[in-house]
Amino acid sequence: PLSRYPPLINDISFWLPSETYCQNDFYDLVRTIGGDLIEKVVLLDEFAHPKTKKVSHCYRIIYRHPERTLTQDEVHRIHQAIEESAVRELGVEGRF
């Protein structure tokens, strides 16, 4: 069952490193860092730059605690850790 507490929604976008990128690796990274606070991760948009041919993904991450209301400060710390880990571990170039 879903929590009755409101969700907090944050988006993240980044340039993909190359053909070696796998969406499932990003989903795993988000769930590893956010744990039970991650309700849903959805790919919102995929963009290919017409000149550079670089590809960008934008994901929506929905945070929700099952027993209390989360603050934006709490979520911001987790979201920032996800951004830093994505750059470090997946080799993406952040657009944040």
Automatic annotation (TrEMBL):
It catalyses: tRNA(Phe) + L-phenylalanine + ATP = L-phenylalanyl-tRNA(Phe) + AMP + diphosphate + H(+). Keywords: Aminoacyl-tRNA synthetase, ATP-binding, Ligase, Mitochondrion, Nucleotide-binding, Protein biosynthesis, Transit peptide. It comes from Catharus fuscescens (Veery). It is found in: Mitochondrion matrix. Residues 3-95 form the FDX-ACB domain. GO terms for molecular function: ATP binding; phenylalanine-tRNA ligase activity. InterPro entries: Fdx_antiC-bd, Fdx_antiC-bd_sf. Belongs to the class-II aminoacyl-tRNA synthetase family. One of its GO terms (biological process) is translation. GO terms for cellular component: mitochondrial matrix. The keyword Mitochondrion applies. It comes from the Eukaryota. SMART domains: FDX-ACB (SM00896). This is phenylalanine--tRNA ligase.
